[in-house]
């Protein structure tokens, strides 16, 4: 039977981690460049066309730059090698970054809802703009939506929750551009109230996304266990190992996008220490064939068929 050696396991883990690191770095740098150009484009055209909405959207785009730099810093920190103070590595920098991005989405959502409400209560605050503002808003919308789809595809390829959060932050900016475009169209058609209504809807959407990412990252930082699908995959692997009679006290927790697994293995109590050690190593290797499992801690218990776990 072919088994992975400890060296093979470590190499595969490093390969996955390196892929995530380089994917995050590349996609985030692209996002930085796009957002810098879009922000300048929106603000300049906003002043030329007298569009306060476009200027505000340009400033909103700057919030993506803050998020991008947060991701870059977290991506670099999270892939530092384990040390004496952090024996399991620094992957939770990613969970912290996801929390920060979630909070940013919450703040942006609240700001959009507040602004929309104020405009609905005070329609005179909605200013008419020139047609060039609509062109600028549509160009920004297409660019931001394309950036979102690119970043989400990369995030899914490397299975990074931090990159998923950053991608949806880019989508919130695309939603903001959509609001501006609708507002400008409404203004040109004489229906100024369309702008605050659309802003209220999108602001609520952004707020909900912020809540989702904030809640999830908080759960991960508080050692939430793996989802039932992942747990079932682990149980299936354990059930398929003939050397163990059973298992109990299976526990998991997240570190970044990886899982730490603890499990008690039930083995023949008459086995030697060496034989028990070999079984534990085999179980660890089998479970770590799943690239999302960072480490496995096992404990051997003598098998008692009368015990019910």
UniProtKB/TrEMBL annotation:
Subcellular location(s) per record: Membrane
| UniProt record, GO biological process | iron ion transport; zinc ion transport
Q: Which Pfam families match?
A: Cation_efflux, ZT_dimer
Key word Ion transport present: yes
- Name one molecular function that GO assigns to this entry: monoatomic cation transmembrane transporter activity
Membrane topology, as annotated: Multi-pass membrane protein
The Gene Ontology CC terms held by the record are: membrane
Cation efflux protein transmembrane domain location: 29-222
Q: Looking at the record's lineage, which domain of life comes first? A: Bacteria
Give the keywords, sorted: Ion transport, Iron, Iron transport, Membrane, Transmembrane, Transmembrane helix, Transport, Zinc, Zinc transport
Q: Tell me which InterPro entries the record gives.
A: Cation_efflux, Cation_efflux_CTD, Cation_efflux_CTD_sf, Cation_efflux_TM, Cation_efflux_TMD_sf, CDF_Transporter
Residue stretches spanning the membrane = 28-48, 54-75, 96-117, 129-147
Domain Cation efflux protein cytoplasmic per the UniProt entry, residue ranges: 227-303
The protein's predominant localisation is membrane
Family per record: Belongs to the cation diffusion facilitator (CDF) transporter (TC 2.A.4) family. FieF subfamily.
Name recorded for this polypeptide: Cation diffusion facilitator family transporter
């Amino acid at each position: 039977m072919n088994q992975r050696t400890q060296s093979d396991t470590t190499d595969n883990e490093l390969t996955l981690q390196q892929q995530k690191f380089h994917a995050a770095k590349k996609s985030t740098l692209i996002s930085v460049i796009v957002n810098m150009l879009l922000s300048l484009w929106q603000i300049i055209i906003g002043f030329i066309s007298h569009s306060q909405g476009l200027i505000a959207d340009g400033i909103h785009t700057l919030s993506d730059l803050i998020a991008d730099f947060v991701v870059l810093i977290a991506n670099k920190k999270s892939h530092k090698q384990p040390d004496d103070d952090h024996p399991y590595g620094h992957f939770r920098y990613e969970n912290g970054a996801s929390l920060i991005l979630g909070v940013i989405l919450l703040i942006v959502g609240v700001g959009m809802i507040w602004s929309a409400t104020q405009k609905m209560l005070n329609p005179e605050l909605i200013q008419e703009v020139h047609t060039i503002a609509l062109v600028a808003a549509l160009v920004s919308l297409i660019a931001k939506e394309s950036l979102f789809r690119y970043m989400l595809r990369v995030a899914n390829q490397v299975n990074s929750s931090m990159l998923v959060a950053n991608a949806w932050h880019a989508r919130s900016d695309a939603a903001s551009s959509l609001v501006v475009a609708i507002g400008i169209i409404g203004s040109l058609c004489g229906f100024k109230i369309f702008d605050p209504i659309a802003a209220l809807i999108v602001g609520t959407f952004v707020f909900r996304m912020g809540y989702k990412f904030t809640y999830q990252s908080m759960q991960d930082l508080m050692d939430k266990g793996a989802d039932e699908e992942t747990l079932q995959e682990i149980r299936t692997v354990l059930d398929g190992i003939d050397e163990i009679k059973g298992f109990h006290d299976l526990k998991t927790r997240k570190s970044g996008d990886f899982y730490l697994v603890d499990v008690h293995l039930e083995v023949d109590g008459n086995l030697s220490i060496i034989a028990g050690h070999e079984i534990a190593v085999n179980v660890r290797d089998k479970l770590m064939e799943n690239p999302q499992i960072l480490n496995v801690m096992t404990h051997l218990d003598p098998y008692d068929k009368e015990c019910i776990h």
